Amino acid sequence: xxxxxxxxxxxxxxxxxxxxxxxxxxxxxxxxxxxxxxxxxxxxxxxxxxxxxxxxxxxxxxxxxxxxxxxxxxxxxxxxxxxxxxxxxxxxxxxxxxxxxxxxxxxxxxxxxxxxxxxxxxxxxxxxxxxxxxxxxxxxxxxxxxxxxxxxxxxxxxxxxxxxxxxxxxxxxxxxxxxxxxxxxxxxxxxxxxxxxxxxxxxxxxxxxxxxxxxxxxxxxxxxxxxxxxxxxxxxxxxxxxxxxxxxxxxxxxxxxxxxxxxxxxxxxxxxxxxxxxxx
Amino acid sequence: xxxxxxxxxxxxxxxxxxxxxxxxxxxxxxxxxxxxxxxxxxxxxxxxxxxxxxxxxxxxxxxxxxxxxxxxxxxxxxxxxxxxxxxxxxxxxxxxxxxxxxxxxxxxxxxxxxxxxxxxxxxxxxxxxxxxxxxxxxxxxxxxxxxxxxxxxxxxxxxxxxxxxxxxxxxxxxxxxxxxxxxxxxxxxxxxxxxxxxxxxxxxxxxxxxxxxxxxxxxxxxxxxxxxxxxxxxxxxxxxxxxxxxxxxxxxxxxxxxxxxxxxxxxxxxxxxxxxxxxx
Lengths: 280, 280
What we know:
CATH topology of the largest domain in chain A: Rossmann fold
Strand content of chain A: 15-25%
Largest interface: A-B, 97 and 97 residues
Distance between the termini of chain A: 46 Å
Strand order of the largest sheet of chain A: 2-1-3-4
Number of strands of chain A: 8
Oligomer: homodimer
């Protein structure tokens, strides 16, 4: 299949993450498309509009934008029209629908989703919880968690916990070490109502990742750390532990961290209906 | 101002992050709106469509959806119409624009942006880089970084580094300790072309965050860790260091991690034009 190179300009008055997420999701549906993405964040004044427009003049392409201030948006639109480029207002249908359900007038101020308010500070606390917890296992921390992830080494427990932290969920993790029982604090936290979820992956995949780690900078791991037969035993032992304690399991072999995190959110939301959404 | 409560159903065939980002960004513009968000991720078959529809019947509200498969999308639309709920296809304008620039037909397969491919593995490596690096400072790691963040304690260096990791950027961080010169490896990495960015924050803000930390579980910090006068001296010393070495500075006092990360990306992209975008 011949690759179709296209320059895509993404213009935002804030970080550009919303427009990037939307365009990445849609663009990923076109197998032939090879996008050259140019991100223009923090376009909040006429100077920034002019800078973005001159970048578009230099490398013409389709333009996707989200700009809250109507005056800035109008200037941007006119500039794009003068350049004759195809363009769209990414959030237009969302604003149309919100406008139709009687919620007042938009504030037109950029970056309001990133206000450093109470809920933002809660998110930062959740990230720090995941990072600090990773140093070692304090029983009181397990008790304070919204969810505890357990699994053998390299099942992406830590990055998944920190990712959940960015979403405001306090996630703790606990490694399953071959031949050793998990600490009693785990079962105590579980009995107190903290959800525990097991992560697993195919032994082949784990061997591959661990080998990479051994080849890398970290050489503190044991010599049989990446041995496939040993890993098979470890994974089987972990699976038996999950089964014995009726712990729900996610197989992360073909899952990205984002997908694993979404599945975890769904699992803990189901236990405590409507209590965990970012706005509820 | 009276708060307007509205139930917002977000339906996705993948993690729901795209539709959540779009609706959160737009909804944050309505100061009176108090959204009750109900996320329905992984809606990939007719059973999941029915589950989402019955949740909507239970708590009616506006529906925002992104579903790649046209058959699933159609069933969802028809169900929403039967319930008489207002709804919108969040990515419609993005697909319309991509369709108009000749990039073929969409694949209609859910979650393609989360494929566990080469670029995904690079992202995981970048996250691990940030996490591993945080243990201590190895000079060869500083040399391998895409960017090095420096600043006094609690200027959000670590969460910002890990967040950049999720975006595929290998970020290292180095604390500035009062009265101590940074290690020679920092200047060596900088001379080798690794960008160094200073983070700072208002002493009041730092005192507040550090006090919180002292009140929390971590009591390893020094007794004058949260003393305002000492923090003022620390911040001044750091600012002088940045100035002496012409290191660009970001003040994170009123910035969220997402905004700081976006600014860092913009700063390092400017140095190496078009080399750092997620698709370039």
